[in-house]
Structure prediction request, 264 residues.
Amino acid sequence: MNWSFKNWRRRYALRHAALPDVAWRAAVSGLPVLHGLAEDELVRLRELTTLFLNEKQMVAAGGFPLDDDMRIKIAAQACLPILNLGLDYYAGWVSVIVYPGEFVPEHEFMDEAGVVHVVRDATLGESWERGPVVLSGADALRGGEHDGVNVVIHEFAHKLDMLNGAMNGFPPLHREMPTEQWAQVFSAAYADFCAQVEGGPETALDPYGAESPAEFFAVTSEAFFETPHLLQREYPGVYRQLAAFYRQDPASRYPKFQHLMPPR
Prediction:
């Protein structure tokens, strides 16, 4: 698509398909993760959310009652990570599929012996390279509550991770970000986190992050926006790298939540 035409189309959408004030205020009030945003940030998030809903197809599956309020809440959470990056970070795919709750995708893989296996595991979300994002609607609705769990942010972090190919916990960094520093910080934190998960029943972050470096990036991205002070305490280097990548500092927005962090 021609760049100037794309910009024209987006300006047209902002003029003629703007989200109604009442609907936007209801969505924001229902998502505590947005409450610390400054007024100018909320204006930009509203514009991004409008464009997201204009350019992406959000469809219900499994009989889920996907209403306008739910669409806006999912889109707003999806756009929070790209607030200072832009909608083009979500280019190359169009669909968000929303199930009522857990869904069971089917995947095939071939082992070293050439035997094809079919795996069916229940999940709350899934991201496909250049394909859809699939979400549990019930869990998407519970997102944004400052509990460190946000399936929308998690799956859209995977989308950012896949921008440069493989989903490996190493998204395309900005020019001013040294790749060696990102690799060193995340590798050390991931190794420490895996040791924590293996050695004890409880961790400050979601133990699912130990599944792979890609899942660790997604889980720390959830924590970055949902429980930033906790991530700052546990892995300050990771927090700084994510702040540089997302070009945001959520900890500065939510000082009142610092005292709610669980003890070490």
Observations:
- The chain has a mean pLDDT of 86.
